[in-house]
Every structure is written in structure tokens, then in C-alpha cells.
Design goal:
The protein has 310 residues and is of the alpha/beta class. 47% of the residues lie in helices and 15% in strands. The strands form three sheets. It has a four-stranded mixed sheet, covered by helices on one side.
Amino acid sequence: MSLPGKILYHAWHRPVGALRDILAAGGPWEMRRTERGRQEMEAAAHDLPALPAVPGAPLELHLLTGRRFWYQTAFCLWSFARLAGRPVAPVIYDDGTLTEPSRAPLARLFPRIRFVGQAETLARLDTHLPAAKFPHLRERWVNYPNIRKLTDVHVGQSGWKLVLDSDLLFFHHPALLVGWLDHPAQPLHAVDCETSYGYSRPLMNELADAPVAELVNVGLTGLNGSELDWARLEHWCRTLIERERTSYYLEQALIAMLVAGRPCTIAPAADYVTLPVVPEVRECRAVMHHYVANSKQWYFQSNWRRTLTS
């Protein structure tokens, strides 16, 4: 960016963007209420009630988390487990910040939990995704944590795995996800509120050799690690960045390209809601909410509390 461009960015675009974010969040008072609710949610995660013992094979769920998000992970898993009617065996990938005080509440709630430390992940990456051969994926791993939901879970691994974002809450029995976990046969993904890939569709279609579908959302993602071609993903990553720069949505773009032209299990938008809005965000009739963007105020102010009584 040129010097005049930097001056314009800091003098105009950045302040205007910050003001826009404040207004979108409901103004300063609502932002304070949201932050207070977030703090109360974090405190409540320490005291979530123990889950009753239930029969059946454990359901394995994979999540990336750390010190800043562990309590959201706890509520996501706890709200899923209490409604699934099956034991849950979470696999937690440490983003490098997960402390023992953050692990302990998760371990208390889920006796079958397994923590994958960052040292273990890095050793696997160095073996199967060495930086000399995969420079763009490894650079993104360092500077773009979202890519870790793809790499850390699947590199050097095989078989189907369901990856969840932490900012999900479940309000009703997740029959679709339980069924997929029991008999995975094709990729699974959620539906976005709008198509958000960060890259042009012609370029994505060219690289994927198939039309990329609209509205692929990776808050829920089921993939088979055995099928992933990491050399191809490195090529995609390099080409997207060289032609159209980096994007916050790179991970979503890559997964949308991976499933392009393939039959998929699609979590219905009416039941697995990305960005819930009024009246759904008040009524919670859907199976699940994914609290992205401006729905965070509902997530932190009120809806985590509903999982305790619903």
C-alpha cells in the first residue's frame, strides 16, 4: 500500500469501518451488554452440569480451540451431547494457547475427550506437509488460523471426521449429524446465509474442474482425510493468493472447491441456521444456530442461557 493509501486507510476507512461495526452491534450500550454476557458465559462454562451416562457408541467430534474460545467449545459440545442421546468423544486441537485451566472444565464434562497438542500437530505437519514442499499451506497455517480446521484435523490422518466451529449452540436433537457420524458416505457441510468465498467464481471453477456450489458454509464440515490431495490444495492455495490475494474466507473457498461436483449431505438451512435473525434467534426452533457476525449479541446476551433450560 502506498503512503497516501496508508494515510487514507488510517484517517478514513479504518475509523469509518470501526463506527460501522459499532452501529451494527447495536451501539455502545449493546456492546457493553454483549461483553457482560460473554463474561457470564465464560464463568458459567466452569459449572456446566455433568452429562448423564447414556448407552451407544461414542460420537467423535473435532474442534479447534484455545484459551479465548474454550468456553464456547464447552457450550457447543455440551448442548450437542445433552440432545444427541449418545456419548460424545471430542477431539480438541490446541491452537497453541490452550491452558490447563481451560482444559480442565472440558475434561470434566467429557471423560472420553482427547487433546491434540500443538507439538503433536506440528510433528505431523512436518512429516506429511513439510514447508519446503508446501510453502503456501504452511505460511497460511502460521498467519491464518482458520486453515488449521482443515490441516490439523486431516493431515496424516484417514477416515471421515466431522469438524465443528465452537460458536454453535444446539436446541433440538441433531438427527442428521448423528446419522452421518454413524454412517458417513459423502462430504457434509452447512448452508451459509450468503455466498462468502473471497475469490471469483470463474477462478474457483477453473481450479476445481467443476462448478462450485453457492452457499457452502464450513461451520459444520465432514470430510474424509484419505481423499484429500494436499499437493492439489497447495496448488489451489498458491494460485488463489497469487491471482487474487489472501482472503479471510480462504478455508471456506478451499472446502467449497473440494466438494464441487460431488454429492454431499447438506445440513438444511432451516434446521442448521447460519446467522440466525428475528424471529428464529428469539424462538430457537431450529436444531442449531451458528452465531456469526451480528448474531453474536444474541449468542452472548441470551441464547447460551437457553441451552441450560431447553
